[in-house]
Design a protein that fits this description.
The structure is a single chain. The chain is an alpha+beta fold. The chain has a domain of 117 residues: Jelly Rolls (Sandwich). The strands form 2 sheets. Strands 1-8-3-6 form a 4-stranded antiparallel beta sheet. A 4-stranded antiparallel beta sheet has the order 2-7-4-5. Strand 4 and strand 5 form a beta hairpin. The longest helix has 27 residues.
Length: 191
C-alpha cells in the first residue's frame, strides 16, 4: 500500500473527508526516507514537524546524565511520533527520535497541521482524537510502571504489540520496560 492510501485508511477510521479534502490534506505532507540508525530528532534541535510512519520502526528516547537510555515510544506503521513538548511549546527537543530499521515517514509541519485544523473540521476532529488516544496510552503506561512488576509489564507489551518482539532488538525492549537485558532474557525464557 502506498503512503497516500495508508494515511487515507488511517484517517478514515476517525474522520470523514471528501476526496478533495483528503487531497488537500495530503498535499501538506512531505515524504522522507531514513536508514537504520539515522537520527530524525536530536536533543537540542528545534522541532517543527511530527511524523507519520509508513514503514519501518522508530524510537523516541531520552538519555539521562548517567548515559542510561529510557525509551518513551516505539513508532511502527500508522503511528505518529515527535518531541511533542518541543513541538507544541516551541522549545528545543529534550528527547531523540531515530530509526530502528530503515523507515519511510510522512512529515507534517506544525503550522500546516494548525492551518488544516482551522480549515477542515474533520481534520481537527482527527488530531484531537489522536491526541486523546496518545494521552490515554501514556497514562496507562505510567500506571503500569507504578503498579506492575517487570513480568507483568513484559506480558502487557507482548499482548498489546506482539510484533515488537521480532522487530526490535532486545536491549531496546528492555530499555522500554525499564529492566536490564538479563531480566528480559529470564522473562522470555520463562514463557
Amino acid at each position: 500500500m502506498n503512503s497516500r492510501e495508508l494515511l487515507k485508511q488511517h484517517i478514515s477510521k476517525t474522520a470523514t473527508l471528501t476526496d478533495e479534502q483528503f487531497d488537500y490534506f495530503f498535499s501538506h505532507f512531505t515524504h522522507l526516507s531514513f536508514k537504520k540508525g539515522q537520527t530524525i530528532i536530536s536533543e537540542g534541535d528545534e522541532v517543527d514537524c511530527e511524523y507519520f510512519v509508513i514503514s519501518g520502526c522508530l524510537k523516541a528516547f531520552f538519555i539521562n546524565d548517567d548515559v542510561k537510555m529510557y525509551i518513551l515510544q516505539f513508532a511502527m506503521p500508522t503511528w505518529w511520533t515527535s518531541d511533542y513538548n518541543a513541538l507544541y511549546s516551541h522549545t528545543r527537543a529534550t528527547i531523540n527520535v531515530d530509526c530502528i530499521t530503515d523507515a519511510e515517514v510522512l512529515c507534517l509541519k506544525s503550522e500546516d497541521r494548525e492551518k488544516l485544523c482551522a480549515e477542515i473540521h474533520q481534520v481537527e476532529h482527527f488530531f484531537r482524537w489522536r491526541t486523546n488516544r496518545g494521552y490515554v496510552a501514556s497514562q496507562k503506561r505510567l500506571l503500569s510502571f507504578m503498579n506492575n512488576d517487570a513480568k507483568k509489564r513484559y506480558e502487557e507489551l507482548l499482548t498489546l504489540y506482539p510484533e515488537l518482539y521480532n522487530l526490535v532488538p532486545k536491549h531496546l525492549i528492555a530499555a522500554y520496560l525499564g529492566i536490564s537485558r538479563e531480566t528480559l532474557s529470564r522473562l522470555y525464557n520463562a514463557r
